[in-house]
Write a structure and sequence with these properties.
- By secondary structure, this protein is mainly alpha-helical.
- It has one domain: Cytochrome c-like domain (Cytochrome Bc1 Complex, Chain D, domain 2, Orthogonal Bundle).
- About 50% of the residues lie in helices and about 10% in strands.
- It contains 10 helices and 8 strands.
- The strands form 4 sheets. Strands 1-2 form a two-stranded antiparallel sheet. Strands 3-4 form a two-stranded antiparallel ribbon.
- Helix 2 crosses helix 9 and helix 7 runs antiparallel to helix 9.
- The protein starts with a helix and ends with a helix.
- Its main location: membrane.
Length: about 250
């Protein structure tokens, strides 16, 4: 029993530590690994905007292509820019020492990022950049203050002139019908190519893809889990009947 309690404590410790270190509320997020279209869009966004600095070196291109139902030839042509083969690990060509000089620390591998920080944290972080001229790169983030990462999605989202309202759900005024906080950013210093709703959807797709990368067998595990529970339930019936038959003459 003690081992079980200790194991559960270890399992939830990272989440407790993250919650304790979080200073802002996060937007809710629920991944859907069965939405292949969302995962495909997320893969395209990650490849075009994230993979120049961040790798996913615990996964292979071919596995991703198969799971996302993308033909190998199409994946190689449109989502591999390093000259790697479809069967190789998802690495990039950035020199870590040079990256440390540029950003203060080498960009981390993101294969397990949603398992480490949580899906809601990643989703909120991607939408949390705002203008801050006191920072070396001119931007800051409400979820990760003083982060050393540039706002690489600025051409899509634009640049928020003030801190975005992360963790504040939209609400409708009962009399006027106006929607409050429909856009996390109330004022833009730079306009982006996407509306607030479109950017939120793009960041959902990106986070959904990162969630899949951190747990690519989730759907299969959940499917098998149903059969395991059914087996346990049936086994319990036979075990109970056997136990009753065995002990009936003892008393």
């Amino acid at each position: 029993m003690r081992k079980l309690i200790f194991g559960l404590f270890i399992a939830v410790l990272p989440a407790l530590g993250l919650a304790a270190g979080s200073t802002v509320p996060l937007d809710s997020f629920e991944s859907d690994h069965s939405d292949k279209a969302s995962l495909q869009r997320g893969a395209a966004t990650f490849t075009n905007y994230c993979m120049g600095c961040h790798s996913m070196e615990y996964a292979r291109y071919k596995r991703v292509a198969e799971d996302l139902e993308i033909p190998d030839e199409l994946y190689e042509e449109n989502l591999i820019f390093t000259g790697a083969k479809i069967g190789e690990l998802m690495k990039n060509s950035m020199n870590k020492d040079m990256a440390a000089d540029w950003f203060g620390a080498p960009p981390p591998d993101l294969t397990l990022e949603t398992r480490l920080r949580g899906e809601a944290w990643v989703y909120s972080y991607l939408r949390g950049f705002y203008k801050d001229e006191s920072r070396p790169l001119g931007v800051n983030n409400v979820v990760f203050p003083n982060v050393g990462m540039p706002h690489v999605l600025v051409d899509l989202q634009g640049l928020c002139a003030v801190e975005p309202k992360i963790g504040t759900p939209a609400s409708v005024e009962p009399l006027s019908g106006n929607i409050n906080n429909a856009d996390a950013c109330p004022d833009y210093a730079i306009e982006g190519s996407m509306s607030g709703a479109d950017f939120d959807q793009a960041m959902y797709d990106l986070t959904n893809f990162m969630s899949y990368m951190a747990d690519p067998v989730k759907l299969e595990r959940e499917r098998l889990g149903i059969f395991v529970l059914i087996f346990v339930a049936i086994f319990f019936v036979f075990a109970y009947l056997l136990n009753r038959e065995y002990w009936k003459d003892v008393h």
